[in-house]
Write a structure and sequence with these properties.
two-stranded antiparallel ribbon, about 160 residues, about 25% helix, alpha/beta, five-stranded parallel sheet
Amino acid sequence: RENDMLQGHFPLFMDLSEKKILLVGAGRIAGRRLQSLLTFGLQVKVVAKDLRADFLRFADSGVLIEQRCFAKADMDDADMVLACTDDPLLNKEIAEMAKERGILYNSCSDKRDCNIYFPSLIVTQELCIALGTDGTNPAEVKRRRQQIEKALSLQNIIRYTEE
């Protein structure tokens, strides 16, 4: 196939409003992913052994934050799991457990431990544009996002994230 890089990665907008999302970790990447999810009003539970002080601000947005180590039982009712700890081995373990359970998962440590990827987003009142690769070239995605914003003269951008 001509475009093997993205084979099987169909871009899809889906309603996650009734889904339970588990975010493990509270570092920089976890914060970006959480902010993206909250832009769409999604229900998120965060489990993290260590919390950055600024991470607690998310509790005001209805995020359930539990400062403790991850436990396998945390995934019992999750529909999506995001492994965003500073420990690549733990992220891999979390991704493997999610895969075994047949739920959506993403690891910030290794693109091979993901069945979903976070796109770069341009969100306005009327529009949502998502750009992405399979996690291999975030700099190119950022550059293209900036070009699109400029070309479309987009105003009132609510939120955008880096891949």
